[in-house]
Amino acid sequence: MSDTFTVKRPRLPVIDIARGVAIIAMVFYHLCWDLAFYRFIPVDVGFDPGWVFFARTILFAFMFLVGVGLVLGHGDGVRWRSFWRRWLFVVGGAALITIGTWFAFPDSFVYFGVLHAIALTSVLALPFLFTPLWLTGLVATAVIGLHFGFADPLYNQKVFSWIGFWVVPPPTNDLVPVFPWFGVVLLGVLTMRLVRGSAVELWMAAIQPRHGAARVLGWMGRWSLVIYLVHQPLLLAVIMPLSFVMGTQEASRDMEFLNSCQMSCEESGTTAALCAIYCQCGLEGVKRDDLWEPVFSGLVSAEDQAKLDANNRQCSALIYPELEAE
C-alpha cells in the first residue's frame, strides 16, 4: 500500500461513461424533485414509490461505482497523495452542501448525503482492496443484510441516523446511511477485483467512445463530482425565481409545512389519517393568523405562541374529540 508500487493497467473508458449516465440520471431526478417541491408538477417525487425506486437505483449505481473506482485507482497499492486530494475535495463538497441546504431548507438540511457517504465509505473500504475476496464479499453481505434485519428507534435521532437502522428517518432531503450503502461500495470493490486481470477487463478496455454522445458521457463521468456540486444551485437559480413569478411558491410552502407536520405527528404514534386531518387544520390556522414568519424562523413572540397554542388545541380536538370537553 504505497505511492511507488504501480502496475500498468488498460484504461476503461466504459466506467467513465457509466458515471456519466449516472450523473445525468441524478440531475434529471433533482430537476423533477425541484419542480415537484415548487409545485410545477403534481407529483411528490420524494415519496412516490416509482420515483423513490428511481432514486435508489441511481444511488446504488453511484455507490457501486465508488467501489469500482477505488480498485481502479488504488487496487495495486494506495496512491495516498491522490487519494487524500480527491477525498478532501469530496469532504469540501459535502460541507458546502450541508451549509447550502441549511440556509435553503433549514428544517430538512442535508447532514449526511451522497458526498458525506462517499467520503466515509471510501476510507472504510480501503482495507478491502487487499483482503481475501471471500472476506470482502462476506462483509458486504453482512452490511446489507443487517439493514434489512435490524431496526431500532434509537437511530431515528439525527445524531445516530447516519449509521442506518432507523425506524422512521429524521427529516432531511438526503440521507445515505452507512448500512446498507457501505455494503454496496464493497460490492463494487469485489466485482472490480474479480474483473481485474481477466478477459472481462480486456473486453471492457476494448469499448472505446467512438461517437460524440459517448465522449460527452465519458467527459461527464470524469467530472461527475463537479457536476454534482454545481447542478443543484444552477437548477434552483432558475426554478426558485420562476416559482415566485408564477405563484407556485405559496403551494410549495404549504406542502413543506404539511410534510414536516405529518412526519412529526406520525412519530408521536398517531395514525397517518388522523395526522393528515390535524396538519391540514394546523395549516389553515397558520394562514388565518399569518404565522408563517414565526413558524419558519423559530422566532416566536408571546402573542404568536398564544395563537399557536390555541390553534393546536383546536386541531387536537378534531382528532381527539374528548379533548374538546376539557
| Helix content estimate | over 70%
Counting helices, strands and paired strands, the structural category is: mainly alpha
* End-to-end Cα distance: 71 Å
Shape: elongated
Number of helices: 14
Task: Tell me the series of helices and strands, N- to C-terminal.
Answer: HHHHHHHHHHHHHH
Overall pLDDT confidence: 87
What is the radius of gyration computed over CA atoms, rounded to a whole number of angstroms? 23 Å
The major sheet is characterized as: none
Detail the poorly predicted runs.
none
Domain module count:
2
Q: Please indicate the percent range of residues in DSSP E strands (runs of 2 or more).
A: under 5%
Number of strands: 0
Keywords:
single chain, mainly alpha, 326 residues, 2 domains
Characterise the protein shown here.
With 326 residues, this protein is mainly alpha-helical. It folds into two domains: 233 residues, no CATH class; 78 residues, no CATH class. Helix content is 70%, strand content 0%. The protein contains 14 helices and no strands. It starts with 12 loop residues before the first helix and ends in a 7-residue tail after the last helix. 27% of the residues are buried.
Topology:
Layout: H1 13-37, H2 49-74, H3 80-104, H4 114-125, H5 133-149, H6 158-161, H7 178-195, H8 199-205, H9 212-222, H10 224-246, H11 249-267, H12 272-289, H13 292-297, H14 302-319
